[in-house]
Amino acid sequence: MAVWPVLLLVAALAVGAPDWTDCPTPCRCKWSSGKKTAFCKGGAFKSVPDNLDAEMQVLDLSFNSISKLTPDIFKNAGLINLQKIFIRESGLKEINRDAFQDLIILIEVDLSNNDISNLEPGTFHGNQRLRVLVLNGNPITKLISKQFPSLPHLKSLELEGCQLEIVDRNAFVNLHALESLNLKGNKLRNISEEVFMNVAHLKTLTLDGNPWRCDCDLRGFRDWYLASNLRSMSLVCAEPERYRSELWENVQSVDFACPPKVFVTPYPQVQAEAGGNVTFSCHVIGDPEPQVTWMYEGRPMNHTSVIVEAEEGLLDKWANISVSNVSDIDAGLYSCVATNSLETVSGNVSLVLPEIVTATTLSKSETRVMWWIVACGGGVVIILILIIASAAVCISTKNRTRRRNMKASVSFTEQEKKLLDVSIATTTDRGTGSCEALGPDLELIEPPVHITIESEPLPLAVFPPPPEFSTSALPAGAFGNIFISVSVTRDPNMVDTSRCPDLLDLPHRTNKPVYHGMATLPRRPCQGPHYDNMGPRVTAGGSSTLSLPDSTLDVPPPPLPPTCQPLTPEFVSL
To answer: Buried b vs exposed e over 201-216: b needs ≥16 C-beta within 10 Å?
Structure first.
């Protein structure tokens, strides 16, 4: 009788306990592979549901609209016993590094085909039992150093179809138990063999579907990969063009080469002072080791002042040149040429010398003064030119007239010079007669003799004076002719032809203008035609006589005319 109440109590408790299979719509909860599984696929969930049984071991939230996994999101939903989580194609973009915190029995996570572009380092920290991590189809571009925390039991890592371009050599350093790594279908062009040095238990490595560039950066990994037991299928070169679609094993290791890269410093132009020194540096990277040559204007350097120094290295090389005592012949284009088995590359640098331009600058005041000086100087020059031109025209005209009307100079004997002992009077108006030198009886005599000796400036054409007048009588130098003008009448009816017959033999000329600057020799009436062996001469008194000044003949002078009347001058050259 006592057994029945106990049985009834157990039955009542069993009927009142909730069933874990009673999942909220649209989830379905059931056993799958021996685990309590909640299938919530395509249920339009925006976050992890919080009304599931705490004993759920597998949660599938694929094809929902969950964009973010916040910190402790599974712990806050009471799902700390989850072993497997599947969130595929749900638009997931952001994962907090503590989203999976305290899920100590989590062994598998699949986040494929979402929009995860950045995976924070330390994500999955504390999930010590995690064995499988699938991140396929996410736009993850790079894996940085220590991308994953210590996951000592992680054996499979899937990164297929991502956009990986860079994998740091220490990205998997904490995944010591990793056995399978899938990097298929990414954008890897090269990768270092050091990436896998810390993954000692790796058994499967999938790398096909990447655009491998078969150059020196990939040579080390190529040699390592072909020598290992990891290749499941052959890899194909995508670059360079000559190796496109070639299998790695069909391309020799030495042909995985890099063309030289040339970096010239300073670049691209150097300005140096004449007489100074300049140095050019050429940094060359290439594999196989390139040969470096410096060229000047396309010709190999062979100048004795140029020193070429090279620092040997497998992938790195420096080549420097120094030019001493720079001059114009050193200016030009210098080229650093690097050559290896793949290609020839060059870098250029120009050496120029500054152009020296000397200019004189003036201050504002100096400039104003300079303009005044230039203006005044220009005016003075113009005036001088006009004066010189006018004087040249006048002198030329005067000389032509003189040369046409006058005779050349003649020499005088001692006797003739004595006869020319006359009073020399200077007048400012040489075209008119003057009676000032004859004393108080000026009005009773005829004008005296006026002799003017003219000098003309060089380089005008002049006639040298007679030698008798070149020393004591006159200053030494070049002078013009000696002109003696005689005032005579032009009317033959008014002249007593019996008195100075020697002057009447001159032909009467037409009216001539009176020339200023000439000496006038007036004609005085004579008493009679007296002659000696030298002919009639003129005395200091202005009369003609037959005897010399020292003659013993005593001939009284003729009476003076009542007035001194100047006559029209005629010119005669003696």
So the answer is: ebeebbbebbebbbbb
